[in-house]
Design a protein that fits this description.
The longest helix has 6 residues. Strand 3 and strand 4 form a beta hairpin. Helices cover 4% and strands 47% of the residues. The strands form two sheets. The protein has a six-stranded mixed beta sheet with strand order 1-5-10-9-6-11, with no helix packed on it. A five-stranded antiparallel beta sheet has the order 3-4-2-7-8.
């Protein structure tokens, strides 16, 4: 199991997770469905919508199977899959310099993904500080469509 934590600059209220060889996410990926689910999705990349456009804590957990889920701990939860053909994931804010972005080596293949969002309403009055945090869980699996498991109002 891999368990790492990053502080990512969520400029424009988002951060990216993508295969190192992916073209990533562009503005057209933010459809009405993506906005409602708080996640824009492409074949080998996704963007997580955040509560703040500051540095946010993001925990990444890669395991052999789907981790246990306690919905009471989270405001919002989505599940889906992505391809990781290169075996390297990149984690970055949308304005980060890509060559310097955080990277994680994993086995290439299809991964099921769960993104969990916590404390989305625990922000300072100016929205710059907060206790919001995000967890990205990945495990080898099958292709699956985006599913909102628990919805938080947008």
């Amino acid at each position: 199991m891999t368990d790492v934590q990053f502080e990512l600059f969520a400029d424009y209220f988002q951060f990216y997770v993508q295969d190192e060889q992916s073209d990533g996410i562009d503005g057209d990926s933010w459809t009405d469905v993506a906005i409602n689910s708080r996640l824009a999705l492409e074949a080998n990349a996704f963007a997580v919508s955040t509560a703040r456009n500051m540095e946010v804590p993001v925990r990444i957990v890669v395991s052999d199977r789907s981790p246990d889920l306690d919905l009471s701990l989270w405001n919002h939860v989505v599940e889906f899959s992505i391809g990781v053909p290169s075996g390297r994931l990149v984690f970055a804010g949308c304005t980060d310099y890509y060559p310097d972005a955080e990277r994680l080596a994993i086995e290439s293949g299809c991964y099921e993904v769960r993104v969990l969002y916590a404390n989305l309403d625990k922000l300072s009055d100016d929205g710059l500080d907060g206790n919001d945090h995000y967890r990205v869980e990945l495990w080898k699996g099958h292709s699956r469509k985006l599913k909102v498991v628990k919805q938080h109002p947008v």
